[in-house]
Amino acid sequence: MYRYDEFDAKFVRERVAQFRYQVERRLAGELTEDEFKPLRLMNGLYLQLHAYMLRIAIPYGTLSARQLRKLAHIARKYDKGYGHFTTRQNLQFNWIRLVDVPDLLAELAEVEMHCLQTSGNCIRNVTADHFAGAAADEIEDPRPLAEIIRQWSTLHPEFTYLPRKFKIAVGGAAHDRAALKFHDMAVEIVRNEAGETGYRVHAGGGMGRTPHVGHVVGEFVARADILAFLEAVMRVYNQSGRRDNIYKARIKILVAALGADEMKAQIAREFDEIKKAGTLAVPQAELDRIAAYFAPPAFEDLPDDEPTSLDPTFANWLRQNVSPHRKPGYAIATISLKPIGGVPGDAGHGQMDAVAGLMDEFGLAEIRVSHEQNLVLPHVRKKDLPAIYKKLKALQLATPNAGLITDIIACPGLDYCDLANARSIPVAQDLARRFADLSRQHDIGELKIKISGCINACGHHHAGHIGILGVDKKGVEYYQLQLGGSGAEDASIGDIMGPGFPAGEIGGAVERVIDAYLELREGNERFLDTYRRVGMEPFKNVAYGEQMYAAH
Amino acid sequence: MPLIRHGAAAGDSFVTVADGEPLPAGGAIVSLGRFKSERAALLARNAPLGVRLASAQPPQELGEDVHRLSVIVYEFPVFRDGRPFSWARMLRTRLGYTGELRATGHFLYDQIAFLVRTGFDAFETNIPPRDFARALREITDVYQPSADGRSAISKLRTG
Amino acid sequence: MAAPALQVLTANRLRDGAVVYGRAGAWVETFEMAEVFEAKETADAALAGAGEDVKARLVVNPYLFAVRRDGETVRAVEEREIVRSEGPSVRRDLGKQAGGKDAGHGRAGATPGADTGAVMESFDVSL
Questions:
Q1: Do A157 and B146 touch (CB under 8 A)?
Q2: What is the rounded distance in angstroms from the CA atom of residue A186 to the CA atom of residue A199?
Q3: What is A314-394's CATH number?
Q4: How close, in Å, is residue A159 to chain B by CA atoms?
Q5: What is the pLDDT of residue C121?
Q6: CB within 8 A of A460, min separation 6: which ones?
Q7: pLDDT digit string (tens) for B5-43?
Q8: Each residue of A509-549: pLDDT tens digit?
Q9: Strand partners, A96
Q10: Quick one: DSSP state of residue C77?
């Protein structure tokens, strides 16, 4: 993984001093809250329901054991002992004090971490496939490019006061595990017919109030030109994105207003000009230098036998949470942060420390955070899987539900978030309890439930096979159901079923939808496939049906 | 409003003139609208000329006349409106403007480094020159090229 | 004649973001201790006074919110304010509802295993 050199280290130290000065000026009254707010947001510091919330950047979701230990330490020293992994591969702490933040940042800088640009109207954390460098279907590891984009976008003088936030993702496989089409801009590594590797650039995707699937704005951009192309997209957006209405300020609105063709044309014209200037061509030496950091570990030649264990529960975890690796004898292991009835995506300091210890014990240099709020060990020797499973189980980190109905994505919601209309975590807990039975989960198969507590859609509910949106109806929590969303390469926005369900009824409605799926499905259809075949009607009928026969 | 030019307190030899008001004898800064409607007369004056643009007005609106101007002013209606950063960059690089590029309106101490990098060299501001200099020292190296011609860290690494 | 709207003044403390409530021109940490304003004039005056505390860098974002009497107790009308006054409904061991016994900022909490939090046994619909 990337390691800071002297330039990066100096930069992050200076950045800590810069923020410390901003906090001093705020506390001394030289900055009003209005003036300070954009500055603290540039550092991922929100004022939430209970305290300040700090969002720590985890570039493309990659962490070392040393960094994970530091996060555990920060949880203990500056927070209440736990953190929340987010749908953008970052980590949030919920009980932060403003006065502690400069020292906290200094401690993060010691392990090459920071909170820069995790909020605000700037370019945010660049996310990437959490199976990067390991997946069997990968064309190329997307993270070297993600790192180059991260550096280029850091304190970019021209693009720090954009109309609105800007989220970038990078993918390196045909199967899209990074939800590229729902990002403001995404880069997909592709191969053309001549076998050359280049980049397909998407723009204008987004969740929120008005979800959009992104459009291709650059079909095949050559390696050396990628930063020039991305800068062209940013400049068109910075110049023309709406500034009069924050609900219409994202690039997805601009693309919809101009039309994809006009957007492409404007980007192409700007790209030509930037190319002519030549200042953004990335030197090959720099590309090579960064790519070298992401070289895979020295893989051993190991037999590819399926591991076994005397523990009868191991088989379920192996089947569900372990994914194929491109190297025989290796596997990708998903650490579930979705224990039945737990808070999705939360991890305690003890768990973080123990996982770091596990990484050291089994020689695992990296761990990943997925946008589905789980952790991933990318390069595990198959023969180590039983021992690792045993340790994870003791930590309540071995729930065998990766990709199943109880692997729910949920935003913090009204339990934590100042923007929320309704609580999301209790809905996730209720659903997980209802569907806890593992054989029932296996029967249901792949089903992605995503829950957002407000229209800002941080739970990505538009991309859920079943999406749930919390709304506030006269002070009572109601939940709207959406069906048929997908964040993969077959991207689609879920369809709204109809009026919302009160808090006590949403669980039952989802159960009836699932029962209908099990009755209607043909062959090996996932829920998503059945929905796409039969449409909303059969599900809508049963979901609301009970309310008509309430006396039953 | 005090003027900082090239990092130091400076006198302003220009008068910013409202539309419809008479022009002074010396340097004058007029709105883009006035420049367009009185262009010939303004350019014929034997005095330096400047144009003041709103954040929604791209510098391309001036066309080749950029080279006839001594000052171009961009007004920030609110610090959040980041369009002038792109306009400044365009002016300095693609349009080859070499005159004074002045920032006015509502911008923050914390934006000074970005303003300078994108090409502004004069500032109508109450921020003292000493603080101005401090703002430029906070971060030593930069990760991307801009209008100031500084080498990005990626170039510094590989020499 | 309709009952007058009852209001409580709240804000967040600047230095640590903690939720605080207005009482006799000062700030208290628990909702139970908050002053309940029966008249609009007193509520507005308290809010105006809070503006001074904003300038003094004590608090940020003061505002009034509606409460109602439920027998002897006073409750917030909006769920958001109930959550602010108690803490997360999914971590009853944390925040104001823990009565100062929760783990945090280098201090071990009264409840063991507070780091991962109790796994919910039932859907706590009520706030």
A1: yes
A2: 10
A3: 3.30.70
A4: 7
A5: 41
A6: A87, A179, A182, A207, A371, A409, A450, A452, A467, A487
A7: 989 999 999 999 999 999 999 999 999 999 999 999 999
A8: 999 999 999 999 999 999 999 999 999 999 999 999 755 44
A9: A52
A10: S
Q: What is the pLDDT of residues A294-333, one digit of tens each?
A: 999 999 999 999 999 999 999 999 999 999 999 999 999 9
Angle at which helix A284-293 crosses helix A143-153, to 10 degrees, equals 120
Fold classified for A142-290? Sulfite Reductase Hemoprotein; domain 1 (3.30.413)
Give chain B positions within 8 Å (CB) of A11.
139-141, 143, 153
Domain of residue B75, residue span: 3-158
- The string of DSSP letters for A32-49 reads -HHHHHHHHHHTTEEE-S
The number of folded domains in chain B is 1
Query: Is residue B152 within 8 Å of residue B27, measured between CB atoms?
Result: no
Are B154 and A39 in contact (CB < 8 Å)? no
In chain A, what are the domain boundaries? 6-60+68-110, 142-290, 314-394, 409-548
- Positive/negative CA dihedral, A404, A407, A411, A416: positive
Q: How far apart are CA A123 and CA A19, in angstroms?
A: 18
Give the Cα separation of C23 and C34 in Å (integer): 5
What are the chain A neighbours of C61 within 8 Å (beta carbons)?
33, 47
Picking from A27, A78, A82, the nearest residue to C117 by CB comes out as A82
- Chain A partners of B89 at a C-beta cutoff of 8 Å? 158
Give me the helices (H) in B102-149, please.
112-118, 129-137
pLDDT digit string, tens, across residues C5-51: 899 999 999 999 999 999 999 999 999 999 999 999 999 999 999 99
Model-wide pTM > 0.90: yes
The residue type of B88 is: A
| CATH of A409-548 among 3.30.413.10, 3.40.1180.10, 3.30.470.20, 3.90.1150.10 | 3.30.413.10
Residue pointed to by tokens 């004056």: B45
DSSP letters for C20-64: EEEETTEEESSGGGPPEE-SHHHHHHHHHHHHHHHHTTSEEEEEE
Tokens, residue A407: 């692997």
Residue to mutate among A23, A414, A471, with most C CBs inside 10 A, is: A414
Chain A, 15 to 34: residues with Cβ < 8 Å from chain B are 15, 17-18, 21-22
Q: Helix, strand, or coil here: A452?
A: strand
pLDDT at B159 over 90: no
Closest C-alpha to A146, from A61, A62, A223, A60 = A60
